# Entry
Amino acid sequence: MALGAAAAAAASTCCIRSRASSPGHGLPRSRVRAQATSWAGGAEALVRSGAVKAVRPKDAAAALGGGGEGFRLLDVRPEWERARASVRGSAHVPLFDADDDMGPVTLLKKWVHFGYIGLWTGQAFTKMNERFVDDVAAAVAADGGKDAKLLVACGEGLRSLIAVRMLHDDGYRNLAWLAGGFSKCTDGDFPDVEGESKLQYATIGGVSYIFLQILLLLGVVK
# Structure
């Protein structure tokens, strides 16, 4: 996927609900979506300029750990994706959390989301983690804080684009982005994986997961 298309997809696939109780929230949904587009587009520019390094999954092992370039993997996927498969030792700070609001408008949005997306992919209706930047600071404090070398990753490389822009805006300057996300991984790209699934399939849930299991059983995919 070209970076420009990834930036647009990053905004279109994010289910963001604003909250008036937090700075910058309480905005109309269109304004919040526009902000997400801006973050993703800004990250695209950072990657193109070289300010943020793009790392292909097959090169990730060389970028991580003391024997490589010294990056630490920052996994920004939601908990239910990480539970299926994760890289041992990676930091985990979800960019989006499950939206537990039970108001009538949100419930309607959840039903629409379930019918069009959730049933087929298993993805929950989410809201942006309002403490994302603060949570990252706590998670990487021992790695040098804002001087930490972070390889930011998600399932398809879209949410991590937004995360990269947010972190860069907050002063992080040693950032890398896992191009294409874990979905582009092959077996062995990350040697220490834990969980019931392969990394490249961890984003797949719902009815799609059933189809995946059938394809695996038939040997169509591996």
